Amino acid sequence: MSDSSEHTQGIVRPAPESFIKPDLVATISAHGIDDARRGLLKGAFASALVAMTGKAVAGESDPNIVNVPEWSKILGNAVATNPYGLPSKYEANIIRRQSPGLTQTDQASVAFTPLQSMFGMITPSGLHFERHHQGWVDIDPSRHRFMINGLVKTPMVFTMEELMRMPSVSRMHFLECGANTALEWGNSAVPTVQYTHGMLSGSEWTGVPLSLLLERAGIDLAKAKYILAEGADGSSMTRTINIENALDDCLVAYGQNGEMIRPEQGYPLRLVVPGVQGVSWVKWLRRIEVGDQPYAAKDEASHYVDLMPDGMQRQYTAIQEAKSVITSPSGGQKLMKQGYYCVTGLAWSGRGVVKKVEVSTDGGRNWREARIEGPALSKMITRFNFDWVWRGEEALLQSRVTDSTGYVQPQRTELIAVRGTRSIYHNNAIQTWRVNQSGEVENVQLG
């Protein structure tokens, strides 16, 4: 599932000696984490002065020697050397990664987001996960058309120019594939969070509310129960979506994170269905048909269904239930020194807002509430942080989320008791990372 660069990428590295000292660890033990955090900031400030001036703060080195780095003595690169900005060359290892052998062809595969290296809520467009059924296409927007037909008074066809002249909105929402965390149903062979949970990203989406377009076409609200969304790629992806979602917060989107949607994400037009599994966010959107019954399209009659323990299949289970995961420390990383660590991760819910996140360091026996960082938005990933002092003992790190409906993310044993282990989709069980006494972090399953 992984290569050596993945195991080294995103390592939790030791702080400089001036940043975490033995006496500071003792301070953490005696006075708690708030005092420790203040001590860490003081040490960080001192280290920063050394880095900027090349001198020790207390004059411990020769005051006549100043170590000025090369980049502080030269003329830098010209403005717009890269007309489209690029990451630093030192961040070249932070990329989307495929899982070898996951699919028969690369055109019907997945590229996973490096969650272990992400900050905040927004996933850069260039690192947003990809999932295709027959490869991606780059469509000429001047030739693309979008149709609305079916149970409407006036079937309509829109050009991109016409859509982009209409009233638009921008909203932040997560996008998660229904098969995210699929391999965790049966075993814990997947080593890193990039592969366990990396079919998840969060973006700001810009477009026209679908409800506005349906209203303009004269939707028959007395008969309309579902819509069918159809894509223009080679697989002609088609998905049934209930009318409640369609009229609620769906967008016909052309923008992502302040620019046009990337070709891998459906340029020039895709459907945004907040809280619903990613396959329903039809890319290269060309048609919406309004109907009075589910369409049983090829990818929803036999795929994206939940196989239950009694052999029955659940269909149209599209909502992504509340879920969370610790992204650092996480599988494949290593704690290099004992001391304070900020445990960080992501939480989300397809039914509303993240209300609370708790973290356990002992496999779920005891829980403490984490800090929610930044705004908690409806149907959007939310960043959480948790203060932890590692003293070299074995630890079992978990997180669980409670959403605005009161739903609490289940332990794996609780979910399996209802769903069994033969599913592929909609695994929202609590993830466990074991920290060994050596500091190495690995994926494990409890129960």
Can you summarize this structure?
The protein is an alpha+beta fold and 447 residues long. The chain has nine helices and 24 strands.
Description:
The chain is of the alpha+beta class and 447 residues long. The chain has two domains: 102-314, Oxidoreductase, molybdopterin-binding domain (Sulfite Oxidase, Chain A, domain 2, Alpha-Beta Complex), CATH 3.90.420; 323-444, Immunoglobulin-like (Sandwich). Helices cover 16% and strands 27% of the residues. The chain has helices at 4-8, 22-31, 33-53, 160-165, 193-197, 210-217, 243-248, 298-301, 412-419, and strands spanning 97-98, 110-112, 130-131, 145-150, 156-159, 169-176, 200-209, 226-231, 238-242, 251-256, 259-260, 270-272, 285-291, 306-307, 313-314, 323-328, 339-348, 354-360, 368-369, 371-373, 382-390, 395-403, 432-435, 441-444. The strands form six sheets. Strands 5-4-13-8-9 form a five-stranded mixed β-sheet. Strands 6, 7, 10, 11 and 12 form a five-stranded antiparallel β-sheet that branches. A five-stranded antiparallel β-sheet has the order 19-18-22-23-24, with no helix packed on it. A hairpin with a 5-residue loop joins strand 4 (145-150) and strand 5. Helix 2 (22-31) runs antiparallel to helix 3. The model is unreliable at 1-11, 13-33 and 44-59 (pLDDT under 50).
